[in-house]
Specification:
The protein has one domain: Four Helix Bundle (Hemerythrin (Met), subunit A), CATH 1.20.120. The protein is 77% helix and 0% strand. Helix 4 packs antiparallel against helix 5 and helix 5 runs antiparallel to helix 6. The chain is elongated and about 40 Å long. The protein starts with a helix and ends with a helix.
Length: 115
């Protein structure tokens, strides 16, 4: 189960995220849990796998917004960097960027699954 303390230890800016949720911890935690289950992660994975830069940009940009609003910095940072690289049309190894996002998501899911 995710807690404010676990999110803080993960590196989330919990105070900022809570502020966006009127300091309602239950609401904030519910939104974080919903974010972890968001289909946008799969959308990004498939787009990167298929080499579709336009779809990759759209998926990364949507994730960036959601993760930024929740102040989940360890997930937001690579999503943000990937979004800007795609926006600029850079030739990058986007699979490596996806892996950074996936690894951070897995870290957070592991915290959620802890007793």
């Amino acid at each position: 189960m995710l807690t404010i303390e676990k999110l803080r230890a993960y590196g989330a800016d919990v105070d900022e995220g809570l502020g966006r949720c009127m300091n309602n911890e239950a609401f904030y935690l519910r939104l974080v849990n919903m974010a972890l289950d968001d289909a946008g992660f799969e959308r990004l994975r498939l787009a990167v796998e298929n080499g579709d830069k336009k779809e990759s940009f759209e998926a990364a940009h949507a994730l960036k917004g959601m993760l930024g609003n929740l102040s989940l910095s360890p997930l937001f940072d690579p999503a943000s960097e990937m979004t800007e690289l795609l926006r600029a049309g850079k030739d990058e190894d986007y699979q490596a960027w996806w892996e950074k996002i996936r690894e951070q998501k897995e870290r957070l899911l592991a915290l959620r699954d802890e007793a």
